[in-house]
Give the backbone structure.
Amino acid sequence: MSLLEKECRICFESDVSDNNQLIVPCKCNGSSRYIHRKCLDTWRETNISTDAFYKCRECHDIYTIEFIFPPETHFCSSQTIQRMFRPVQTIFSYIYVLMFALFYRTFDNLMNNYTLDLIFVNKSEKNNFLELAKNDSAFSIMFYFSFITIVFTILAYSIFFGYTTLKIKRKWNFWKQFGFTYSMYFLFSCHFYYLYWLFKMDNSVIDKQILETYINSTTFLSSINSFGLATLLLKCNNTIRIINKNNALFLLIDFFNSSP
């Protein structure tokens, strides 16, 4: 088969130029093995968030790419992220949190409600809470559920920050691009604290009605914390893919033009 009979498997054209050669970047056979370099670059850029950026979708051969810097290889597990988005998995996770919250509530009662002293700066607010909890045990459960959720969430974000920083090679470049996103998600997950101060801004003492609104609001937001964390992991993977894309120079192996 002559060069003129060879055509790009994407644009179906056989025209070539000095900066847009027909190349063979993988182990596909037959006429489908040829592709324009620019067509492949466009295809890879379009699929930057999928494995098509790194390997051929047909033969699954991994492209050999030259990078300016060592490529980032640390990605959050896609299986873990998928499980975090599954409603059943989320329900079981929150059942575990609820059981832990009930245990902690019993322990805190034995400690003379020490947690309430950490949260409420005014003794009247603590008394309002205790009175509401006495009349409605669900109110107390919602409070401790939210409190334990935020503790676990802060722990998860801290582990993510430390482990990701340890694994990422170009740490400054990564956090320069991802730091703002991480900060916004982390601050949102801390609603248990900032909602209290938002409600308190116009009230020197939070009364029972405002206290109920605060607990209902933070309980609802606590129930979606896991989805926020899962979304953050997705954005982390996308950021790493973009860093690798900008870091890539060109395909190092061209089986067609490098063959004798």
